[in-house]
Structure formats: structure tokens, C-alpha cells
Write a structure and sequence with these properties.
nine-stranded mixed β-sheet, binds phosphoenolpyruvate, binds magnesium ion, alpha/beta, 588 residues, 46% helix
């Protein structure tokens, strides 16, 4: 906290949802839960289970009502929040959580409240103890289990939930912590912004607040102690700052910033209809990456033409059994139909290393690998379990009846991997054809991710058999520099602008151009507008990124000429460090 003058105080937290909010702060507190830990007699067990069932019915009813209320929210927010509520509803059904709670009541004669609390905590802890580096994903899932536990407990004990009713319209909602289910209750038109003392930048709550479009700063330690009810505050969700009791100068500065932001937003929205081409008319194909289906409406609004990377992992996560061919077909088909004739590039399951999939844990090597990123991952693992691959390929081929699809393989290192998959694809294609199943009119293009140095260095050989390349700079950087992609920014070891990485991108692009196949770049680097001139200069004409980034990247493309881009790429390739490359990009 910084004390700027006698009245004004500044706090900093995670900038979670951009925008400026000005208004009085009001806190929404939640009454503490009081739980009995009494043991029960065996004769009481069935009555206790009946009480639990009642609480489950009430919890399901509340969530179903909440889902209906979502109809009043903007479309994008609905699309983000509904899958979460569906996940909650699923957990309230015959899930592992509920089975575990009932077993505690019936076998250990624990009272329902204590059983709910203990089982939810045990399952959350088990999720957190899983290995792999998707720590944030595990923390989110653990929090979802705890959240459902708290809901059932409140319904068992008839203790009230948090309520936002009674807070003055236009106020800034403050809370020690907001859970995703709380965020789902917020009517965005009622508030100027949200601040919390706890909470991270990438949790579900953050995702929802972004979807609600409300400026939000989470995890601003100490802010609640300093803000008496009604204190005037300015929050800046882009920078992550909160100013309490602002001076007239600070207020004026915030208002100026607010109108500048409104102008930028309008200008970016106008870009949607304009072509993604350089000043001298070189066209660039902008596509979107899709990680979860809720992003679909955002993609439609972004101006992207097609999905350049559908990360299919989400279909396999957070479930106890594997999705069968029909289930997968339905999901892919829904996405293909929503893209309305634009191509959808579906990457087959990239699992292993930091992407763990609980339902598949039995397929992983019996002894834990010392170095999972260098072991069985992506296509290597799928080729060990061809039945999984065949099911996924069949589902993609069937979804191809609804519109253009392309199939993409992750983590390729060897030409033989592509050959093997191509043979499997032929086999699946012939099998479906024999059975007269409706599917893509011809065998869809089969392409590969270039995300290992081996694949980049073999690009000329791979280009003979691959129908297209997609450069995955996230992994390509990691494997080239021998630096984990999960390392904190400050470590400086992991940097996609290192000339060694740029050299491999260039080599890959050249190989694709020589062979006459398409090459796109779909790692996070594609969404960095400063890198646009460099990537175009290296020969890339197709970029795939998070939908939100499309307008900014398009603006960067429209600002340069190809000659400028090629000059930038030439200098960058012979630069001695990522910092030197950054300096070159600054001067464009
Ligand atoms: C990449 O590695 O750049 C990529 C796009 O794949 P993912 O981030 O899913 O590993
Ligand atoms: Mg990758």
C-alpha cells in the first residue's frame, strides 16, 4: 500500500478484467459456517442419508434456477458460466464426491455435515496432490469440489448464502474472496467494478469477471481493512490498481483514461470488418485457438476465420470415464457447425507431461517418468494406445460431414509417427465408409505441429507427407532452449524471441513454402502484436491465437509493409539475443 497524501491510498492486485470503475466501496460478507461433528448410530444412517439427499435436491434446484437467471446476462457471459454450473450439477449427481460422502455416513457412521466436509476436503486434496505442472488447473478443480461441499453444507444446516441485494447501484463490490458461484450471481449493470483481498489471476472467478466485462482487481491485500463502507474508489482493472479516497486530480486522470479506453474499444471493434492485410496488400489468415467451447461466441465476434488449433484435451478432462465416439462426434460437430463453413483444425489429444487427464491415468507408464516432458507425450502416447486414437479420428471424420475439418498431430518428432497415423487414418476412413457412416466427403488434411527441434530440423522431409504445418512456439521454445514453459517470467530462460527459436521458425516456414503446403503459427507468440512484423518477415502468413487478440494483431498487420517485415526478420535472425530482437521490434 502507498499513501500518496493524507487521504488517498493506493493498493495493487491482479489485473483480472480490464477497464476503469469509479464508485463507493461496499463489502459483501458471508456468514461463517457452523458444523456439527457428531457421530451417529447405525440405526440413524438411513435417515441421515435421506437428509443429505434433501440437501442435494435443494442444491441442484438452486443451481438450476441460477442457470435460468443467466438468460439475463450477455451471451458471452452465459457461455462461460453455464459449463461451470453444469460441472457443479454433475458433481451433485451420482458422482465420486457424493458416493464418497454417502460411504462416510453409512460405513463410518459420520454425521452428514462432517461427512460432506471431510469428503470434499479429501477429494480436493487428492486433486492437488496429482503430479504434472498444470497447478492452476488442479487448484481450480479442487476449489470447485470445495465449493460444492460448501453449498451442500449450507443447505444441510439451513445457513444463509452471501447476498448482494441491498448494495447501492454503481458501487464497487468488495469481498475478501469471491467464488465462481458468487460471480455467477453478479448482475454486471449493478456494479462499477469488483475488488477482492484474495484470489488469483487465472481462476474461474477471474474468467467469469472477464466475461461479465466488469473492471476487476483480485488479490489486493489489505484493501478491505482500509476501505470503510461507502469510501470512494477508483479501480483500474488493466493495471491492477485501486485508489481509495482519490484526490480531484486522480479522479480527473481516471476519467480521461476511461474515455481513451472507450475510444480504443470502438476503434478495435471497427477493425472486425476490415481485411487482415499489410499496407502493400499481403493477406494474412487470422484464425482462433479454442481451448473450451465457451470461447466460441468470442471467436465469432473476433473477426477470425476458422479455428487454427482446437485443443481437444478439454473433452477428456474432469470426467471419470473416457468420452466414446458418439460423444466426441457430437462435440466436434457442434463446433464445426458453429464455425459455419470456416475450417476447424482439431488437434488429437495432447496428453502427458504438464497436461494430465485423470480418466487416462491408467494408460500412463507404470513407473512415473523422471522427466515427463521428454517422455511419453502427445502422439507418442496415442500411438502406444491406438484404440484411443482410432476413436478420436473416427469422431473427427464423422464431424467432417458438417463442415471442413483438418486433423493435427501434437508433439511429432519423427517422420515415422506421421506415417503410422496416416495408415491408421486410412484404416478408420475405410471402415466407416464400408459401414456407410456419414462423414467428410474426402479424407481431411492431416497436418502436424512443429514443436520439437527435431520436427523443425526435419521439416523438409516431413513436408513431403504432411498436408500442413502449425508451429507451436510454446513447446518449440521449451525444447529448443531446454527451459520449462512454466518457468516464471523473471527467470529469463524461456523466451520465444531467442534467435535460435526464430531460426527454427524460419527453417520450417521455408520448408513448407518450398513444398507448397500451408504453415501457420499457433503458439502464444502469435498473439503478441509486437512480434507480427517479425513473423510475417519469417514467412508466416497464417496466425492462430486466443480470440481476444485477433483485433490487435490485425491492427499490427495493417500498419506494416512486407519489405519492412523482411528487413526486421533479417536483422532478428542475426541478432545475438532475445533482448536485441526486442530492441529491433521496438523500432518498427
Ligand atoms: C504450442 O506448444 O505452442 C502449442 C500451441 O500447443 P500447447 O500450448 O497446447 O502445448
Ligand atoms: Mg504444444
Amino acid at each position: 500500500m502507498i499513501r500518496a497524501n493524507s487521504g488517498e491510498q493506493a493498493f495493487f492486485g491482479h489485473p483480472v478484467s480490464p477497464g476503469i470503475g469509479i464508485g463507493p466501496v461496499f463489502e459483501a460478507a458471508e456468514p461463517a459456517l457452523v458444523i456439527s461433528h457428531k457421530k451417529i448410530f447405525a440405526s440413524e444412517a438411513s435417515a441421515e442419508v435421506a437428509r443429505l439427499e434433501e440437501a442435494l435436491v435443494r442444491s441442484r434446484h438452486q443451481l438450476t434456477k441460477l442457470k435460468q437467471r443467466l438468460a439475463g446476462l450477455p451471451e458471452q457471459s452465459q457461455a462461460e458460466i453455464s459449463p461451470l454450473i453444469d460441472a457443479y450439477l454433475h458433481m451433485l449427481g451420482p458422482s465420486r464426491l457424493i458416493r464418497g460422502i454417502k460411504a462416510r455416513v453409512q460405513d463410518q457412521l459420520t454425521g452428514a455435515e462432517a461427512a460432506v466436509q471431510a469428503e470434499a476436503e479429501a477429494q480436493a486434496e487428492a486433486i492437488l496432490a496429482l503430479t504434472g505442472s498444470d497447478r492452476e488447473g488442479r487448484m481450480r478443480r479442487a476449489e470447485e469440489v470445495r465449493e460444492i461441499g460448501r453449498r451442500v453444507l449450507r443447505n444441510l444446516t439451513h445457513q444463509p448464502f452471501r447476498s448482494f441485494a441491498g448494495l447501492a447501484p454503481g458501487s464497487i463490490l468488495a469481498a475478501n474472496e469471491l467464488r465462481p458461484a458468487d460471480a455467477a450471481l453478479i448482475q454486471p449493470t449493478n456494479f462499477a467494478g469488483i475488488i477482492t483481498a484474495e484470489g488469483g489471476a487465472d481462476g474461474h472467478t477471474a474468467v467469469m469477471l472477464r466475461a461479465l466485462g466488469l473492471p476487476a482487481v483480485l488479490g489486493a491485500t489489505g484493501v478491505l481493512d482500509a476501505a470503510a463502507p461507502g469510501t470512494l474508489a477508483i479501480i483500474d482493472g488493466t493495471e491492477g490498481s485501486i485508489i481509495l479516497n482519490p484526490t480531484p486530480d486522480s479522479l480527473e486522470a481516471a476519467r480521461v483514461k476511461l474515455s481513451a479506453m472507450t475510444r480504443t474499444r470502438r476503434a478495435l471493434a471497427r477493425l472486425q470488418r476490415l481485411a487482415a492485410e499489410t499496407r502493400d496488400g499481403v493477406a494474412v489468415d487470422l484464425q482462433a485457438n479454442l481451448e473450451l467451447p465457451f470461447e466460441l461466441p468470442m471467436i465469432a465476434e473476433s473477426g477470425a476465420h476458422g479455428i487454427g488449433l482446437l485443443r481437444s484435451e478439454f473433452i477428456f478432462m474432469n470426467r471419470e470415464n473416457l468420452p466414446d465416439e458418439d460423444t466426441q462426434t457430437q462435440i466436434y460437430r457442434g463446433i464445426v457447425e458453429a464455425m459455419d463453413g470456416d475450417p476447424v483444425t482439431i488437434r488429437v489429444l495432447d496428453w502427458g507431461s504438464d497436461k494430465d487427464v485423470e480418466a487416462l491415468s491408467t494408460y500412463l507408464p507404470a513407473t512415473e517418468e523422471a522427466n515427463p516432458a521428454l517422455g511419453l507425450r502427445g502422439i507418442r502416447l496415442l500411438l502406444r494406445h491406438p484404440a484411443l486414437l482410432e476413436t478420436q479420428l473416427a469422431a473427427i471424420l464423422r464431424a467432417g460431414a458438417a463442415g471442413p475439418v483438418r486433423i493435427m498431430l501434437p508433439m511429432v518428432t519423427l517422420c515415422t509417427e506421421l506415417h503410422e497415423v496416416s495408415e491408421i487414418l486410412d484404416r478408420v476412413w475405410r471402415r466407416l465408409k464400408r459401414r456407410g457412416v456419414r462423414m467428410a466427403p474426402k479424407r481431411p488434411p492431416l497436418g502436424i505441429m512443429i514443436e520439437t527441434p527435431a520436427a523443425a530440423l526435419s521439416a523438409h522431409r516431413l513436408a513431403k507427407d504432411a498436408d500442413f504445418f502449425a508451429i507451436g512456439t510454446n513447446d518449440l521454445t521449451m525444447y529448443t532452449l531446454a527451459a520449462d514453459r512454466g518457468l516464471p517470467v523473471g527467470s529469463k530462460l524461456y523466451d520465444p524471441l531467442e534467435p535460435a527459436v526464430l531460426g527454427l521458425i524460419h527453417h520450417t516456414a521455408r520448408a513448407a513454402i518450398d513444398a507448397g503446403i500451408q504453415v501457420s503459427l499457433c503458439g502464444e507468440l502469435a498473439s503478441r502484436e509486437q512480434a507480427v512484423p517479425l513473423l510475417l518477415g519469417l514467412g508466416i502468413r497464417q496466425l492462430s491465437m486466443h480470440g481476444n487478440a485477433v483485433p490487435r494483431v490485425k491492427r499490427a498487420i495493417r500498419a506494416v509493409t512486407l519489405a519492412q517485415c523482411e528487413a526486421v526478420a533479417q536483422s532478428a535472425l542475426s541478432a545475438s539475443s532475445a533482448d536485441a530482437v526486442r530492441a529491433i521490434l521496438k523500432d518498427v
